[in-house]
Amino acid sequence: MTLDAAAAPAPTRRRRGRLTVLVLLAVLLLGVLLGLVLGVAGGPWGSSTTQWAEGRVQLVGGDPPRDHHVVVLQDDDWTYAFARGTARWIDPRGTWHEDGDPTCVVRPDGGGVRFAWERADVEDVSWRVVVLVDCRS
User: Fold this and answer.
1) Dihedral sign of CA atoms 122, 68, 114, 87 in order
2) For the chain, which residues make up each domain, given as ranges?
3) Which class in CATH covers the domain with range 51-134?
């Protein structure tokens, strides 16, 4: 009986040790997940200031229509501009493009277009940057 009594506490200690390790791993995992969620929600990905607007299109610079160098988009309050071939855009079928000219801004009719912009701040100056042109509508 002496052998059985001495051997009995060892499995209990092992179980407690395993349970402690599992609890610590669970707390660590929870901390990592919480950090990721808070980091994304409060970090650069979650704090985007992207806004959508609709505006009239005008091409300027050079001789019409091929030599225009700048696309100007104008809504009720702001005038936005970007160099041709520099904006990301979505074509009428929903395909994303990272270069070339958005098909909906190259047309000479001055029609409207939907676009996304973000505010840029440097020192005491701020402006709006066109980040995407949506030609689906």
Assistant:
1) negative
2) 2-42, 51-134
3) mainly beta
